[in-house]
Prior knowledge:
2 copies of one chain form a homodimer. Chain A has 23 helices and 6 strands. Chain A has helices at residues 4-18, 22-31, 34-42, 46-52, 59-67, 71-80, 83-92, 95-104, 107-114, 119-130, 136-139, 153-162, 187-192, 199-202, 216-226, 246-265, 278-307, 313-317, 320-343, 352-377, 379-382, 385-415, 420-450, and strands spanning 146-148, 171-175, 181-186, 210-211, 230-234, 240-245. In chain A, a hairpin with a 5-residue loop joins strand 2 and strand 3 (181-186). The radius of gyration of chain A is 30 Å and the shape is elongated. The mean pLDDT of chain A is 87. Chains A and B meet through helix 12, helix 13, helix 15, helix 16 and helix 17 of A and helix 12, helix 13, helix 15, helix 16 and helix 17 of B.
Amino acid sequence: MLDSALRVKLENVKKLIRRNAKVPLEKVLAKLHPADIALIVSNLSDLDRKKIWSFITDRSRVAEIILEMDDVDIVRIFEEMDPKMAASLLSEMESDDASYVLRLIPKEKQQSFLQYISKDELLDVEELLHYPEDSAGAIMNTAYFAMHSDTTVKEATRLLHKAEHLEMVFYLYVIDDEKRLVGVLSLRQLILNPPEKKLSEVMITDVVSVSVMDKEDYVADLVEKYDLLALPVVDEHHRLCGIITVDDVIDIIRDKASEDIYTMAGVKQEEMMFDNQPLKIARIRLPWLLITFVGELFAGFVITYFQGRVQDFLVFSTFMPIVMAMGGNVGSQSATIIIRGAALGRIDLSNVFKVVFREVRVGAVMGIVIGVLLGIVAPLWNGDVRIGVIVGTAIFFAMLFASFTGAFVPIVLMKMKLDPAVASTPFITAFNDVTGLTIYFTVSMLLLMIL
Amino acid sequence: MLDSALRVKLENVKKLIRRNAKVPLEKVLAKLHPADIALIVSNLSDLDRKKIWSFITDRSRVAEIILEMDDVDIVRIFEEMDPKMAASLLSEMESDDASYVLRLIPKEKQQSFLQYISKDELLDVEELLHYPEDSAGAIMNTAYFAMHSDTTVKEATRLLHKAEHLEMVFYLYVIDDEKRLVGVLSLRQLILNPPEKKLSEVMITDVVSVSVMDKEDYVADLVEKYDLLALPVVDEHHRLCGIITVDDVIDIIRDKASEDIYTMAGVKQEEMMFDNQPLKIARIRLPWLLITFVGELFAGFVITYFQGRVQDFLVFSTFMPIVMAMGGNVGSQSATIIIRGAALGRIDLSNVFKVVFREVRVGAVMGIVIGVLLGIVAPLWNGDVRIGVIVGTAIFFAMLFASFTGAFVPIVLMKMKLDPAVASTPFITAFNDVTGLTIYFTVSMLLLMIL
């Protein structure tokens, strides 16, 4: 969101665009960080947005600004752009950024851009595109700072001067004759060591690295665990291929968290791409609803079944929403604790019993509280105390079972190597409704016979 | 979670502890990263866990290991520890880490530790404890690398040699006579500039900084937006007080995402502290259930009201679970998109109408699909085609309204400066059940009159 300072600047930019005030506008934009310009651009009207680009003549700056934008906006900009212009912007980007952008764009368009890119750069970008999405190889930056182990500290410092085009340099990677990664040195260590020493004498040989095929989640976990600023990526022969920097890891972590949140509610990040296309968004969300729909049909059967069998069915039907909502909530609470706990590495699947047992006990406590409450409230409906005892007892068992399902289903999915967030929520909702109503009416039926 | 390599090491450590093999165990532990030892320790039995500490004699290393552990484990360790030992471990930590640990520990215990800490260190730690939790002041590190603007590049490089105790040095902060922050220089720029130049000549004066009272979320946003490795923290006179490094920001981002996920399901991160205390966990989760409980009582009233008014009530009651589940799902989908979109800064509250309108259109599309489906399925129950037309139409309107509520409620909460994640889900669930059932029975009643 725009903070107040940026909002003022946005209004200023709007005014200058409308007045076509080239020089003042260029001055304002030159002083702003690309990330801020990106925010301003995304808040302009379509017309102003097209105009603003003509005031930023430096292509590398345009590329920087575009990279700070949301995926939706990046796609929109490149889809509207002349292929030659697009190719020249892509050439301005680091290889990892260029391949990131290209992955967002439909295959046909991709080709029309690539034909205008010079062979050298194409090689780098195509190599990255070739790695599976979400792999370390796909997101690594191939422009890094590496030197042979025989280099002296003095020589390395001199070479650093020449590497001014490289961004985010904090480590110097040390390689051997075969380009294999053999050591690492922080810039600070470079400063602190005597100039005549060889890198092989001063480097740390115990380098944390990942393989090009490792998953980006694993990369993020390593960077977080060891507090790294960058992680070298190597191929199957341990040759250095690229680096992944901490700023990219922050994006991975945020995206992964968003994905978990979206998945648990049956929506998707990609929706953002279809801002004005309700049909496409509905198509993304419907599968989730359909699973629930089928599940709830069974709940319908349960109701039909008990209608002829439970005395005073109408009274009991009044509390169905409470039974279903409590079961649903208790189940989703347990499921959330398990799913997020697993994502954070806090739940050990070797100790399943302990986790499920804890959730069931919590469910039991909450079941007693809600059971007693409902037991007190229910007789107010028709003055029959028996009804209170019955529905209170019934909802207790329904909640107890819901806490078990809520904990158990995600664990089973994880054991089956499936993403627990995907199937858990709609499945648990529907399943808990069916079992909850079955337990509710069965207990009610049995207690009615006894009391 | 433990990866396979670490699992092997864990088994090895277990064996060595049982054999009391001091020397080999010390060797194994010396080679491991503190983060890995922390993982191993948290996977040991209580008995082994107590023993392992006697094999790590270096206190600063013990402090490092403890800091890598989960909050739950940190609290457990310090609560069992002798206050003198605790104080000596806290003294080994950076001031931000020490105050982080102290914040986790109950006030009484805190005091028993603090009396054994030397006055100098106490001053730093108490200053940090004094800032509100979640503020930049509370999480900043007071050990940073800063120099006067008159210092030469050569002198700065020499001083860097002396600052070996400082961790995570990537920027050199430049201050004036009053300790006010006036510039910044990366280590790389330090290397690249001629030794005789003054820092004031080579520094960047446009420094991004935060105030001690700024929220940690804001800090995280800035670091992410500008791809920073560290952010200086200043007081109201713009004096440099500390720095916040990117590794801490990663923790903030992960914690914030967890908090959002937990809040939306009515659970809390703190639960982890009460692993074996179902009563305490239930107390955390119950408020959420109680809100829903009260809401669903109203759903009960709605059902009672329509029981005497809708013909064939029993047939219609069969589809209540579908109506409620569809409304609930559609509502939570819309709410999730809005809540996460706002957290990521993707939803602009100045354009509320557009967002709500999109969600309602998506709800309409899904309502039509589910309505038609239910219209086809429902007559299978009792062979009456009219029932299909009626429940199909009714569920369409219920879903349409649910998508509106799902989008509108979080926006209203945000406009009221409340956290939309807190109240949204239980409130939306209950509210959608009540309105969904009301719409469903009203439409059914009206259509029954016409058809």
